Amino acid sequence: MDDYVEEDLPLSRTKKKQQAKQVEQIADQLVGLSDKQYSQLDLPVIVAQEAESARVTKGHSSQRRQLKHLAGMIRKSEGALESLMKQLANLDQVTRGEKKQFHKLEKLRDRLCDADSFAVAFDEMLELIPDIDRKAISRLARSVQQHDDRRAYREIFRRLRDESGEN
Description:
By secondary structure, the protein is an all-alpha fold. It has helices at about 15-30, 35-40, 45-55, 60-75, 80-110, 120-130, 135-145, 150-165.
């Protein structure tokens, strides 16, 4: 009777528009990446050229037009969409990991600057970063605890971030 397979049917106009909108969102995400993140991507030459053009385009209408053109190039380029989606997902995971590490270091710094939790936090810091300058961290933490020194507070975080990045 009416037993038919859904894949045999052509895509509806609505479904095509939804897919086009998704590709435009991916193109928008691509254009919105930082220079560091953008440089990590491996894009087909034609897509990379269009992305560069869209990244430097100023003006709302001009940029929207460039994004639509970029989305069209992504759709036409063989395998570019799947590759780009995977690469953007990987970048997103890296970014989440960096944020997690950043928050972990902030909490450690806050505990180091609190007189009550200093000893436990100091031991934890030494486990995480054994090569850190212990005397400098102790001196900076005392300065924060006794004088509410904001410069020392920022310096503790900078040292924690720099030393943990090298490990």
